[in-house]
């Protein structure tokens, strides 16, 4: 029996090959990378609160809406900051706010999914030649 051959990264189609678990893993890696950058360079230089919120909500998507306090703790954004940024994301139809929680809308989920696929695709090609 022959071993299956893993296709070269350049042959992968990030739009069809990647499962939700792959996208969640990518989101978690981006979150970890952003935290490392914030520790090394300071949050003032690297802070993108809406990205942090969107990634956190994407990771939590299967478990339902995330409470504001939980979201604030997960993103290191103050509670007033969370509320301000959630209003901005809601105005863009990326999230909805049931009570004192937030979740991605279908549009928000689709846009974060597309963004994560784009990030993964960018890592599968050489940019430094």
Task: Summarize this structure briefly.
By secondary structure, the chain is mostly helical. 62% of the residues lie in helices and 6% in strands. Mean pLDDT is 84; it is low at 1-12.
Fold and architecture overview:
The protein has 129 residues and is mainly alpha-helical. It has a single domain, classed as Arc Repressor Mutant, subunit A (Orthogonal Bundle). It has seven helices and three strands. The chain has helices at residues 14-17, 20-41, 43-46, 49-59, 68-75, 79-91, 106-123; strands spanning 66-67, 95-96, 101-104. The chain has a three-stranded antiparallel sheet. Strand 2 and strand 3 (101-104) form a beta hairpin. The chain is globular and about 45 Å long. Mean pLDDT is 84; it is low at 1-12.
Distance between the termini: 38 Å
Largest sheet: 3 strands, antiparallel
Total strand count, please? 3
Strands of the largest sheet, in order across it?
Answer: 1-3-2
Percent helix among the residues? Answer: 55-70%
**What portion of residues belong to β-strands?**
5-15%
Query: What's the CATH architecture name?
Result: Orthogonal Bundle
Protein name: HTH marR-type domain-containing protein
Organism: Sphingomonas longa
InterPro entries: WH-like_DNA-bd_sf (IPR036388), WH_DNA-bd_sf (IPR036390)
